[in-house]
Design goal:
3 helices; globular; three-stranded antiparallel sheet; mainly beta; about 180 residues; Pnp Oxidase, Chain A; seven-stranded antiparallel sheet
């Protein structure tokens, strides 16, 4: 692999989109479902792996949504959103919320959080956030939220790597 000077990145137009996506897939991520309640009371949500901590003080997180999502207006107009970090046993919810179904919630067990945000039962963590900023991110919108409430429980996380779901195992070189 040849190093390129930081001031001279390769133009994106030269990238093979499928190959670039495979390269990005080498970074293992957690899987989350971001939810909100619309002004007319509908529950909406979708699967993301673009969730990240931004700041501890103030407590900020971010996630990204493609500009061509059918839910873009619902999230850009929402005052709050919730990030539900999925457990290893919730891979079915990841697939369910990644579809274009009218009601992605189906018969999944939920309870209501602050600002009416739907929270998925069994998630390893919930972060209820006030939407504070939205930024242009190319073909995505970057949502930044200030965490107003959160809950978490010990559990096995759902992990996504190279286009597949995985479960965590302890590295053999790391003592317990």
């Amino acid at each position: 692999m040849k190093d390129k000077p930081a001031s001279q990145p390769a133009p994106a137009a030269k990238f093979d989109p499928r190959d670039f996506r495979r390269a990005l897939g080498q970074y293992a991520t957690g899987v989350a479902v971001v939810t909100t309640r619309t002004k007319d009371g509908r529950r909406v949500g979708l699967t993301v792996n673009s969730f990240s901590s931004v700041s501890l003080d103030p407590p900020l997180v971010l996630w990204c949504l493609t500009r061509d999502s059918s839910l873009l207006a619902d999230f850009t107009e929402a005052s709050h959103f919730a990030v539900n970090v999925l457990s290893a046993r919730q891979h079915h919810l990841s697939r369910q919320f990644a579809t274009e179904l009218e009601n992605r919630f189906g018969d999944s067990e939920c309870f209501e959080g602050r600002a009416g945000c739907p929270l998925l039962h069994g998630a390893t963590a919930h972060f209820i956030c006030r939407s504070v900023r939205q930024h242009d991110g190319g073909d995505h919108i970057i949502f930044i939220g200030e965490v107003e409430d959160y809950q978490w429980a010990e559990g096995e996380p759902l992990i996504f790597h190279s286009g597949s779901y995985h479960v965590r195992t302890r590295h053999p070189d790391v003592p317990e």
